Amino acid sequence: MPVFDSVRSAALPAALFLALSGVAGAADAQRTAPAGDPLQADVLGATLAGEFAVQAGRLDEAADWYLAAARHSDGDAGLAERATRIALLAGDDRRAAQALDLWRRSAPGSLPMRAAEATLSLRSGRDRVARRQLDALLRSSDATGWRHAFTVLAGGGRNPEQAGRMLERLVADRAIPDVLQAWMAFGGLAQRLDRSDLTERILDTIVARFPGEPRVALLRASQLRESGRPDDARAALQAMGEDAALIGPDVRLAIAVEYEALGDLHQAERILAKGPQDGRTYVVRASLLARAEDKATLAALYDEVRAVAIAPNPAQRLLLGQMAEYLEQFDEALNWYDTVPGGGERLQARLRGARVLHKLERRDEAWQRLRALQSDNAADEDTRRDAYLLEAELRREDEDPAELDVYNLGLGAMPDDPAILYARALMWERRDDIARAEADLRRILVQDPENVAALNALGYTLADRTQRYTEALELIDRARLAEPDNAAIIDSYGWVLYRLGRHAEALVELRRAYSMMKDAEVAAHIAEVLWVMGRRDEARRYFDEARGLDPENRSLLRALGTTGA
User: Fold this and answer.
1) Would you indicate the residue range of the signal peptide (predicted)?
2) Burial class of residue 533, CB neighbours in 10 A (0-12, 13-18, 19+)
3) Measuring CA to CA, which residue among 29, 23, 113 is closest to residue 70?
């Protein structure tokens, strides 16, 4: 899945690569050198070769080079750590074990090293050893030990079932420290792993250890909702009492979020109405009422804010404009936006005013306003960029082919701007012009080789829309190395494994992504893999979940067409 918007302790800056182009070229040319190659004994040369392998997305070669650099570095813990992490991502347990041994020698008490040990044990299927290592992390005198154990269980195992079994054992052994945040984190993990039984057990323990804690009630409500018991979830929230919203703004927002997830937008708004109000609170309340189509209450809220508004206050005028926009009182919204006096709010108001003009079908005026912003040298670069992106978005809504002209104008004024290039690449992909989408994403990578969003988007596009699967895997691996716990990147990784025919491995990764991010595209990917594996009933369940999340999702529609489900 593209990121529609790291561990780099031993990485060398791009400037050094260019300055040492001769060495780098030699490293690149000899990347498959045998173990006795002299370059492997040169710490700098091996590190450069390893980093060039990373840049090419060849993680197995990168792990080999970094391992060689670590061996000859006289105990550099950073090199040993990088070699270990790259090998783990590459799925190379043998090299990971060798690098981990070097890391252990140079930093024997390091919690990250001990977490990597547990990860390797899990990956190797040595569950008993892993359990002892995780237990040691959880009982560490270092207060952060449980966080390292949590990270291992959340992403280090072979599959969610293994992580669930391990967590169940640790709970039974009473290994989790008597810290509310730790119990909440592991309770949330059990919920993500679809272990409702284990979540209940953890919740019972939390209630006993931390009686009266509102966050516990919130976790229980969330667990009940996600397990398909909305009435019980609502009862759990109601049992907290509305006064719980007065404990603090974070608790108030969390309660409102749970009511919103249950579809009770009115109650979410009522919860937010308790306690002190500010511009952000008013905007969220107005948004909830607009979605509930409760114009009467929204109008009352609008009148309330308008009554206390101070005429020259930019933030209040911007807020009133947004509320009038929610009320579909577009003429009034435009008046508020036009009278925002200055500052950053003035620039936002000019952008929103253009959107309102578009809603009023005064398109020529909308384009005129946006063009004025695009050429306003007094406006900051972000605002001018946003003016191009907004015009393109509005033209796309109109199915106006001039969307492309806007992107071209933007790139003429702001050459190689990554946000505009990225947006244009998405446009090309929607138009099925994959070659041009690829070209724009590669332009981003030329100027910023570590742009994770572009790496993932290009890798996913090649995996999804071409047969260049090996190249796609290399790009996605580069993104994984930068952000190994990014759910969208994990989904991309699972999808390219599926395209490569590695169905069982793909299913593990896709399910891990779905446990982190309930998304229609990820659910559709899981469903298609299950369908191809002959597990049709399970596949239909995921197709149904995807429809519930976003019935018009393009990946879902393609998967349904491909499978005939």
Assistant:
1) 1-26
2) middle
3) 113
In whole angstroms, how far apart are CA 431 and each of 388, 396, 551?
20, 12, 20
Q: How many residues does the chain have?
A: 565
Opening angle at CA 385, ends 384 and 387, nearest 5: 65
pTM of the complete model: 0.79
Dihedral sign of CA atoms 47, 48, 52, 55 in order? positive
Q: Which two tokens stand for residue 430?
A: 């929607």
Closest CA to 140 of 106, 173, 167, 115: 115
Tell whether the model's pLDDT for residue 279 goes beyond 70. yes
- Going by pLDDT thresholds of 50, 70 and 90, the confidence category of residue 19 is very low
Q: Determine phi and psi for 428, rounding to 5 degrees.
A: -60, -40
Q: Which tens digit of pLDDT belongs to each residue from 152-205?
A: 998 867 778 889 999 999 999 999 999 988 998 898 888 888 888 898 899 889
Q: What is the pLDDT of residues 316-351, one digit of tens each?
A: 889 899 989 988 899 999 999 999 987 789 999 999
Residue that is written with structure tokens 């008046």 in the block: 335
Collect all residues with Cβ–Cβ distance below 8 Å to 219 and sequence separation of at least 6: 184, 187, 188, 191, 203, 206
Residue 13 has pLDDT above 80, yes or no: no
Neighbours of 409 (CB within 10 A): 17
Is the Cα dihedral 427, 550, 471, 11 positive or negative?
A: positive
Give tens-digit pLDDT for 75-123: 899 999 999 999 998 888 999 999 999 999 999 989 999 999 999 999 8
Question: If residue 396 lies in a helix (H) or strand (E), which one and from where to where?
Answer: helix 381-397
Which token pair is 520? 């229609």
Helix, strand counts (H, E) of the chain:
33, 0
Which amino acid belongs to residue 138? L
Write out the H or E segment, with its range, that includes residue 286. helix 279-291
Q: What is the pLDDT of residue 14?
A: 32
